Amino acid sequence: MDLAARPWVASYAPDVPRSFDVPDGTLSDLLDTAVGTYRRAPALEFFGAATTYGGLGDAVARAAEGLRSLGVAAGDRVALVLPNCPQHIIAFYAVLRLGAIVVEHNPLYTDRELRHQFEDHGATVAIVWDRVVPRVQRLPADIPVAAIVSVDLVAAMPASRRLALKLPVRRAREAKGALTTTEKLTGPRKLVPWQALLRHRPLPAMHPRPAAEDTAVLQYTSGTTGVPKGAILSHRNLLANAAQGRAWVPGLQAGRETVYAVLPMFHAYGLTLCLTFAMSIGARLVLFPRFDVGLVLDAARRSPPTFLPAVPPIYERLAAGAAERGADLRSIRFAISGAMNLPQSTVETWEAATGGYLIEGYGLTETSPVAAGNPIGPTRRPGTVGVPFPGTDVRIVDPEAPGRDRAQGDAGELLIRGPQVFQGYWRRPDETGAVLLDGGWFRTGDIVRMDDDGFLTIVDRIKELIITGGFNVAPSEVEDALRAHPGVADAAVVGLPRAGGGEDVAAVVVLAPGARLDVEALRSHCRGALAAYKVPRIIVQAEDLPRSLIGKILRREVRTQLLNDGLRAEGKGDSR
């Protein structure tokens, strides 16, 4: 069926193309085009220090030659263990220019988490925030990292900021300590300062370039459903998703937008929306090594943002901070939320503060990551994650028999097909075969419902469904019921194994200020909204819930903690 005839296309905002062709070329070509078109325009800003597109292109060419001198060649994996900073963008494109593969890592990972990923991808060179260098040096000797490029974030700051960090006062020492290490770096592996890479001559223009189908990035999944796996994303996948993002936002002004990178670029959401998308429109990308309301509002006075991809808690905190400080956010015309449910109250507060749009989207690491979004215009539908992006097709199927489509309006597993769908999992053919079906369809593992106009509503994840008494229980439905109680600030619901088979519904709740845990009162409240088998048999109180860096509750960790730590006596009981 022609995608232009799909029902959701009628809801696209004006000027969004009804059909979509993937641009030719690679991410290296994307950057070259931006450098050639916007050479004198600012590409990056970091604490006020600006880098032009011409300067970025030169730094990428020099860093690429520096990496080549360390032995990096086409197909090699290069690990990036960096927060958001100019060196991150330069390193990303330098690796790709050699035809090598970027492997993104969270710099807050533990030794164990880093070890698993380094064992899996086998990178021989790592570009690492200097505060994390000791952790990479501690990797076992049988892991083949031969050289570590050490990155000092302070070196990318303006001179005035660097001088301020040298002041002999406690506040300056603490600020500097959060950005760079004061310890002498040593270890068994070769250590190369980042600046040494940039002292090389530029990589010769005739050096072989990558191809569109070559692997560009190994992006490890969050691990919420098991051991993290490296999703193989090609140049074509990432180039297509950046182009789909450009097509989705009517009114973008190439060369004149300012994008704020408050999302970590080692996450697929931040990588595409901030790194590749921003470069593709010649935007000024303002970089924040971590999200801080004060830093963002200070930067907004200097370089007012126009495009902000983020998650609901960030929008809430920024709106509150701006109101408190009397800061102006009205420059932000476009805001895109993902990774978790976007409350209508957050939309209303944000749009009142900015006068711009805040819409919700949907995606996964395996879809580079964006696959659907609410239209930026009056056809948007709050409470849904929108409609499939241009060039993207979807099906709703029986999760037990994915070849069988569900009836219109019935919930089922979401399948996605499009140019942004990944190539498989790194060195995991069996797991790849389980999710990539004939015809190019990707099994998301998400249970969704589609209305007549093609708008998608997320119901839950297959692997997080709880099976109790032969019935399936969606954790999000129980969480919503718990959060509706005035004494509950937040909740996470998981299934715990029951003697004799099946699972018990277990809830961990964070109480509102001043509230006390009353298990039976919470169960009584839930009985008013849920069938009896969905009411939690176990309710436990916690001060907070484990979350990913972008704020998503990690139900797998909640479950592990409950199993490992045991259950508080007041949390046990029968919900019937």
Automatic annotation (TrEMBL):
Organism: Arthrobacter agilis
UniProt xrefs under InterPro entries: AMP-bd_C, AMP-bd_C_sf, AMP-binding_CS, AMP-dep_synth/lig_dom, ANL_N_sf, ATP-dep_AMP-bd_enzyme
Record flagged with keyword Ligase: yes
PROSITE patterns: AMP_BINDING (PS00455)
EC number annotated for this UniProt entry: 6.2.1.3
Domain AMP-binding enzyme C-terminal: 477-552
Entry-linked Gene3D superfamilies: 3.30.300.30, N-terminal domain of ligase-like
AMP-dependent synthetase/ligase domain ranges (all copies): 33-426
Membrane-spanning residues: none
Tree of life domain: Bacteria
Name recorded for this polypeptide: Long-chain fatty acid--CoA ligase
Molecular function GO terms recorded: long-chain fatty acid-CoA ligase activity
Keywords tagged on the record: Ligase
